[in-house]
Amino acid sequence: MTELNLLMVGAGLSGAVIGRMMAEAGHKVTILDERDHVAGNCHTERDAETGVLVHIYGPHIFHTDDAEVWEYVNRFETFLPYNHRVKTTSQGQVFSLPINLHTINQYYGKTMRPDEARAHIAEIADTSIETPQTFEEQALRFVGPDLYEAFLKGYTMKQWGVSPTDLPASILKRLPVRFNYDDHYFFHQFKGMPQDGYTAMVERILDHPGIDLRLGQRFSREMAERFDHVFYSGPLDGYFDYALGRLGYRTLDFEKFTEIGDYQGCAVMNYGDPDVPYTRITEHKHFAPWEDHEGTVCYREYSRACGADDIPYYPIRLMGEMEMLGRYVEHANQEGGVTFVGRLGTYRYLDMDVTIREALDTGRAFLKHAADGTQMPAFSKPPL
Ligand SMILES: Cc1cc2nc3c(=O)[nH]c(=O)nc-3n(C[C@H](O)[C@H](O)[C@H](O)COP(=O)(O)OP(=O)(O)OC[C@H]3O[C@@H](n4cnc5c(N)ncnc54)[C@H](O)[C@@H]3O)c2cc1C
Fold this sequence. Notes:
By secondary structure, the protein is an alpha/beta fold. It has two domains: 5-80 and 192-244 and 317-372, NAD(P)-binding Rossmann-like Domain (Rossmann fold, 3-Layer(aba) Sandwich), CATH 3.40.50; 86-171, no CATH class. The chain has helices spanning 13-24, 67-76, 101-108, 114-124, 135-142, 144-160, 198-206, 236-239, 319-335, 342-345, 352-372, and strands at residues 5-9, 28-33, 44-46, 53-55, 62-64, 79-80, 86-90, 93-97, 190-194, 211-215, 229-232, 249-260, 268-271, 280-283, 295-305, 314-315, 338-340. Strands 8-7-13-14-15-12-16 form a seven-stranded mixed beta sheet. The chain has a five-stranded parallel beta sheet with strand order 10-2-1-11-17. Strands 5-9-6 form a three-stranded antiparallel beta sheet. A hairpin with a 2-residue loop joins β7 and β8 (93-97). Bound molecules: flavin-adenine dinucleotide. Flavin-adenine dinucleotide is lined by residues 9-15, 32-35, 40-42, 58-62, 218-219, 233-234, 238, 252, 313-314, 342-344, 350-353, 355. Its cofactor is FAD. InterPro entries: UDP-GALP_mutase (IPR004379), UDP-GalPyranose_mutase_C (IPR015899). Residues 150-349 form the UDP-galactopyranose mutase C-terminal domain.
């Protein structure tokens, strides 16, 4: 095997997992990240004042049905049991999410059994909408106007900055209601929280003699010439210096505050009312129930349009963005020597387990191309 000189742009999960696979295959790997830490948006850090492990870029819960991915993360970190549950404060009361039988009974002040609740919702749902096109139509069709107003409308407007009448129906699941008391947020077979945090896990993934990690360094396209191949997990439009315009993202602002004791009794409390400017409050100590801290760290989370100097969080992927994305994909396909990976490189929302799955598949595809002497394509998972 010829030793290749490879560059990973980004030390998030995408860059780390591909980089590790390449180093284990005997290649020379350089990993660059413009930030001063690894783990990308999953980065966790201990708060100096309270000792609480904080999810710096917003709450991250690991959940998957992918046995290989679960085995992979457990190779580098101990995952402890954690069941995610979310509450919402709406119209002066606290309710259980996702909308379930408890939410419905509390909202209507009733004690309905599953079939009664199903019949009640069927009665108030707008069944004249046969094929919902927008988020609002989807909600009215499946939950009716009351639950839509209380739990979905205000939150969605704050999160996306547009009216639910302008969002596609696909954003809301087909049946966004549970007619039982199951309030687990995720149904996956494997779920948990990394005992020492995601950053410790990524540091261990990167701990290999074949990996040269350089933090605080920004990638520029001239660097690519010095390498046999580049795996790029930065923003796709950023790679081309935004020549065709900026792909739309939402960004988040976190207002941090500390308290003594337990501030809200749960990890995540949503705020659905439109007159509350933030979407949710995250109390980080609840992500590590095995730890004991006197103080507590909370983030009030605000969502807004992403400007040029902001961190891109959620890709918007409405019609205009998709057209621009198509043009960037054409450019990328002509580039050669670069593979675009991860949530920013492919302009998609990806959960961590999907990111790892795609990174493993991309790494394997590259090694096969290298062995066959064929060209690795620009995308192993096309963004469109
Ligand atoms: C608010 C929020 C909550 C989330 N919650 C969950 C959750 O609960 N569960 C879950 O499974 N997933 C969650 N995710 C998804 C998770 O964050 C992603 O799956 C994961 O971060 C993707 O990893 P990545 O390596 O592709 O990208 P990133 O983590 O974004 O890493 C990319 C890295 O590239 C670096 N970079 C970019 N451009 C350059 C450049 N030009 N030069 C050098 N470095 C560069 C960046 O600094 C960054 O470190 C959440 C995402 C968000 C936004």
